[in-house]
Every structure is written in structure tokens, then in C-alpha cells.
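[Discussion] Sanity-checking designs against the backbone

I'm trying to build intuition for which residues belong where. Below is a C-alpha cell string of 128 positions. I'd appreciate it if someone posts a full sequence so I can compare it with mine line by line.
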């Protein structure tokens, strides 16, 4: 389940829906408007295999890695958020929920970086 943080602009969410990307909104569908960062992780643990997509750098923290969810930080220009979400979700290494679970991921124009639970170093891959 792809979950958009409330910091993803509505126009970008609308683009994703036009491109048939299935998603839910953390504030409209799952939580509440103004949900705090501290309340996000407990919410994720109640959901079935969620992949939250956020523009919040605070989630780029390897200690947040957990086998029951993935967190994707979009370190991109706000007006390009939908493009990078679609590109990331189509990447051969991250196409399925099973491939994403347990990872804390940073998506940027220069490539993808990610932490896995108990990793001692970040893994970096280039866009193909």
C-alpha cells in the first residue's frame, strides 16, 4: 500500500492518480490532518505492508527501518514529486512491496540510497 504523506502536494497526488498509481493519503484516508512524525510509525505498524512516500528528511534515519514497512524520502523538487514516485515504483529493485519492505529509501535525481535493518552502511544505486 502506497501512502502519501500530507507534505506531498495535491496536484502531485492527482498526477499519480491519473497515471493509475494506487495510493492512500495519511491525513485523509488513514490518520488525521496534522498528524505528527511521532504518530506516523505507530500508524504504519497497524497497516498491512505500507510504503509511505514523504518529502520529510526526518524519515531518512536507519533506526526507523522495520520489516513491516518501507519509508521513502523524496529528496527532489516539489513540482517533480509525482514523476520521481512513479519512476521509483517502477524501478526493477523496488517494483513490489516485498522488495521495498524493511528499507528506508532516499530518492533523488542522482540515484537511490537505502538502509536496511542492521545495515552498517547505506547502499547506493544509480538510475538505469
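Best answer:
Here's mine. Compare freely.
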Amino acid at each position: 500500500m502506497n501512502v502519501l504523506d500530507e507534505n506531498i502536494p495535491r496536484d502531485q497526488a492527482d498526477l499519480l492518480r491519473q497515471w493509475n498509481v494506487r495510493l492512500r493519503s495519511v491525513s485523509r484516508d488513514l490518520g488525521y490532518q496534522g498528524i505528527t512524525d511521532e504518530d506516523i510509525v505507530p500508524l504504519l505498524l497497524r497497516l498491512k505492508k505500507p510504503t509511505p512516500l514523504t518529502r520529510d528528511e526526518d524519515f531518512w534515519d536507519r533506526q526507523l527501518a522495520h520489516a513491516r514497512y518501507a519509508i521513502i524520502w523524496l529528496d527532489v523538487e516539489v513540482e517533480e514529486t509525482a514523476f520521481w514516485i512513479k519512476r521509483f515504483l517502477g524501478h526493477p529493485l523496488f517494483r513490489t512491496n516485498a522488495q521495498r519492505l524493511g528499507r528506508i529509501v532516499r530518492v533523488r535525481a542522482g540515484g537511490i540510497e537505502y538502509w536496511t535493518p542492521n545495515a552498517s552502511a547505506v547502499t547506493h544505486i544509480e538510475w538505469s
